[in-house]
Amino acid sequence: xxxxxxxxxxGPDGGLARISAEAATLVRELATSAGKDAIGIVVAPDPxxxxxxxxxxxxxxxxxxxxxxxxxxxxxxAAGHVAALVGADxxxxxxxxxxxxxxxxxxAVSAMTGLGVLVNATAxxxxxxxxxxxxxxxxxxxxxxxGFTAGRGIVTxxxxxxxxxxxxxxxxxxxxxxxxTRTLPxxxxxxxxSEANAAAPIExxxxxxxxxxxxxxxxxxALVREIAEVLGGAVGAxxxxxxxxxxPYSQQIGQTGKIVKPELYLALGxxxxxxxxxxMRTSGAIVAVNRDVDAPIADFADLFVVGDLFEVGAALVExxxxxxx
Length: 325
Fold this sequence. Notes:
The protein is α/β, with parallel strands linked by helices. It has two domains: 4-175, HUPs (Rossmann fold), CATH 3.40.50; 207-324, Rossmann fold (3-Layer(aba) Sandwich). It has helices at residues 18-34, 48-54, 74-89, 100-113, 221-231, 239-243, 274-280, 309-324; strands at residues 4-8, 38-44, 60-65, 93-97, 116-127, 130-137, 142-146, 153-157, 172-175, 207-211, 234-237, 264-268, 285-290, 303-306. Strand 6 (130-137) and strand 7 (142-146) form a beta hairpin. Helix 3 crosses helix 4 and helix 5 packs parallel to helix 8 (309-324).
């Protein structure tokens, strides 16, 4: 069956990963404008929960049961099923979230099917030649629009470029079996580690307080964490702070870190270089504190405070605690 497909990633709890809900929303809207069918695919040991959730975004969801996905890397197991479906039904395009698993799956399916891949899409439109995929290149300095020479291919969708929105009515889930002809070596999962964060995972947080080179040290991040705690938000960081060893890589925001879209982004001691801007520029409101009046972040912040981040931050904590008290 031709159409636009979304391969969804199951979350750690068996439900639908947020990045897949965002990709499904983008594809549903694209399919409507293109006059195409929108179809979701879930491959999991128990695809039911994720498929049911995906059906709130798409009219049709195929649920493929694969027990091996319980103990092995999802992308390596799912790729064979997706490649088999692509070979049988020849979709117009296949979409997947541009997370670690999604990128692995896209590469594997490309190798199995010969389809090309366009990565980190920030927007997609439909043309007579197929999908036109917008991407940021050179650290976000340029925006390009690319298509497939054959008109068909695989697109990975960057997280937080679309807001997940359920459809007006729920779709249906259909069990599906596949004739897998090509498989990848099993990659056994020997351990899973959940990292404790702030009020929410950084990609999903409504409020993020980030520190940069100006924070100065590991101890300096105590203030960043305190502000995030008072606001009920998550802690982020620039690459400079991560490279200095002051905070784990898992909290890095930017071109080589996480892409976030909070309602409020508070940047403390962050200059706002293009590599960092790429990761947070779609935030609802951007507030920055920096001693350098010429810091690049002043050009795109909604509110730019010139001052010492520790003085401003301490005053902010005091006001917030007084208000909550």
